[in-house]
Amino acid sequence: MADTHISVSAFARYRRGLVAAALAALVLTGCGGEARGGGTQAEPDKRASSLTSSAQPGPEQAAFAAMLSTFGKKCPEPGRVDPRPTAGKQTGSEATASLAPGETPPAEPIEPGPLTGPAAELSDRDLCTSGHHEQRVVEALQEVADPTPVKVRKTLNSLGYIDEHIHGLQQDGTTTRFHLDLRESGGRLCVAGLAAGEESDASACVAPATGPFTVKTEE
Asked: Is the pTM of this model over 0.70?
């Protein structure tokens, strides 16, 4: 009887071992299935998020575009260029009309010079919007003491100009120079700025209508 008892106990332990092994296999199989299933579900979410972020501008870009649009609404439509003065002589009624009351007409015909620089190349819309940008930039920079590039960038950011459109921040003695890329709707506008406290200044400049940002230099 003792031998039979030992044999049954050994057999019972053997069965319990088989059951435990089978349960462990089932658990591992289930976990593996969940991991694979979870991974498959996560991939489309990541791709969708990536596609969405690349197709839609971020909040900063959207706010910057809205700012440009706001100033643009106060100016002529894109592409409009009114006739600009050209070199030539004014005679007769044209010369007389340009004189102030009581002023003696000059002996020689009046010869207005042609427009040069950005005024000759930018559209009426660009020239108009440039005035809005120049005024607000200068007013803000006049309040900046010790205008280092870091302080100037922070000030421009506070006005809505994002880093992607701020170029050439460079300290020059106690002042800092920079350019703003303000191209939109096929325009070529950029603004060249000088942060110098009360002597701060900003003026229109010309950039290519498309492609990387560069500033056209006057020949």
From this structure: no
